[in-house]
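cron nightly-structures :: item 1 of 1
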Amino acid sequence: MVKLGILVFILLIFFSLFKGLFFLVKEGGGTSHGTLKALTWRVGLTAALFIFVFVAGSLGWIQPHGL
């Protein structure tokens, strides 16, 4: 279940990234409100994913493996 949550986070991050790219190309510059909003969401989702993985590891929901 935790792996599914991580996958959903990653898919949302990619969606936000491509949404920002769409606004960047559509409006012809990096100063548009849509680009800023999409990339702000991407940064927020990435931070939330990092915190989620850290908490899940601390609670024992996921186990690190040796490489």
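cron nightly-structures :: done
The chain is about 80% helix and 0% strand.
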